[in-house]
Amino acid sequence: MESNKSASWHFCIAPMLDWTDTHYRVLARLMTRNARLYTEMVTTGALLHGDVSRHLSFNAAEHPVALQLGGSDPSDLAAAAVLGAEWGYDEINLNVGCPSDRVQNGSFGACLMATPEVVAKGVRAMQASVDVPVTLKTRVGIDRSDSFEAFARFIDIVAGQGGCEVFIIHARKAWLDGLSPKENREIPPLRRDFVYRIQDAYPELTFVLNGKLETIPEMQAELARVPGGIMVGRAAYQHVDWLRFVDQMLFDHSAPIPTRSAVVQGYRAYMLQALESGTPMPPLLKPLLTLFNGLPGARAFRRHLSEQGPRRKTDIHVLDEALDLIPDLDALDSTELEWRCASPHAVPYAVVDQKIG
User: Fold this and answer.
1) In the CATH scheme, what architecture does the domain 260-332 have?
2) Does residue 10 have a known ligand-binding role?
3) Please, which residues have CB within 8 angstroms of residue 295's CB and are 6 or more apart in sequence?
4) Most CB within 10 Å of its CB: which of 25, 73, 80, 249?
5) Which long-range contacts link 252-255 to residues 24+ away (Cβ below 8 Å)?
């Protein structure tokens, strides 16, 4: 197993539907060189019977980047994994955590926790087909099968029969009936203790903790307890700016903190290339919407992008005009105050520790 932080699962940004597309991942990479990035979940059917290029194209700057697959048939998973490896992904991840009705109807996602032998066969088939790591993202249980013993049995089978060595654990169970995907991210209680216990029970495996990690100090504390790594979800898009601190505070204290100006200018250059290739403006602007949350002018910035982007689909000046609504952008890059407020939900440069509503 890799031991170098930058080549491992030390800090990961979760696969999130409608958020972690290639544009978001390019923006994230401008802020952190070391984070491991994940695609939105792509079903095996979409790859084997759809537009492969649309689903798998990504920017070379995104590495290390993982492809997350949804599916359960071993042969389909193997074929989709081969496509992912051929397109250059650094990891193939299988989704065994999504509880949505649509995913359940396709017999994959969290419902697969009830059939660990099926998961093991899928993982084994993928591993036999590709040379890149094959990993699993799962929950700690489903419905009333939520004991630690049931969770440990699932891990034991998938590791023993499937050969899986890396498990990303969303430390909540999933209710397959009665809760929406959003509610399943919030209502079932966190059981981080399950991750601690399973790590102690299987020290030869790598476990990555996922679930309501919101501040860098909290992430540092969990990394001390779960050395395999952590994965951050909603906090990584609700206030994307804090990702600029990841390399210095979670990897290397001598790493520079990218300025907002540098991030914006790097992303603007990317936008120009994407616009020239035919990408419309709105999806390019979406990752920027939370970049200035909590700063003067942030609301006007978001409003301008949201209103003008759909109207002027090829005009890069939409971004330039929005940036003019943020006063003294360069002056906002004061390291001293940024360190004090290095938290996803802390308002940068506030006199008091304030939370974003």
Assistant:
1) Up-down Bundle (1.20)
2) no
3) 326, 332, 347, 348, 349
4) 80
5) 255/33
Domain ranges within the chain, ordered by starting residue: 5-239, 260-332
Query: Is 49 annotated among the ligand-binding residues?
Result: no
Residue 173 counted as an annotated binding residue:
no
User: What average pLDDT does the segment 191-219 reach?
Assistant: 95
Provide CB contacts within 8 A for 277, sequence distance 6+. none
- Beta-strand runs (E) in 189-294: 206-210, 230-232
pLDDT in tens, 221-266: 999 999 999 999 999 988 899 999 999 999 998 999 999 899 999 9
Per-residue b/e over 143-182, b at no fewer than 16 CB within 10 Å?
beebeeebbeebbebbbeebebbbbbbbbbbbbbeeeebe
Q: Is 68 annotated as a binding residue?
A: yes
Q: Tell me the HSE value of 164 on the side-chain side, using a 13 A CA sphere.
A: 31
Within a 13 Å sphere around the CA of 247, how many CA atoms are in the beta-carbon half?
15
Q: Is 234 annotated as a binding residue?
A: yes
Active-site entry in 98, 111, 164, 341: 98
Closest CA to 255 of 78, 33, 13, 50: 33
Output the six-digit token pair for 234: 């909603």
Q: What is the 8-class DSSP label of residue 174?
A: B
What CATH number labels 5-239? 3.20.20.70
Strand stretches in the chain, DSSP E: 11-13, 36-38, 42-43, 65-70, 91-96, 134-139, 166-170, 206-210, 230-232
Bridge pairing between strands 11-13 and 166-170: unpaired
Among the listed residues 128, 122, 127, the one whose alpha carbon sits nearest the alpha carbon of residue 138: 122
Cβ contacts of 226 within 8 Å, gap of 6 or more: 195, 196, 199, 207, 208, 209
Q: Residue 98 catalytic?
A: yes
16 marked among binding-site residues: yes
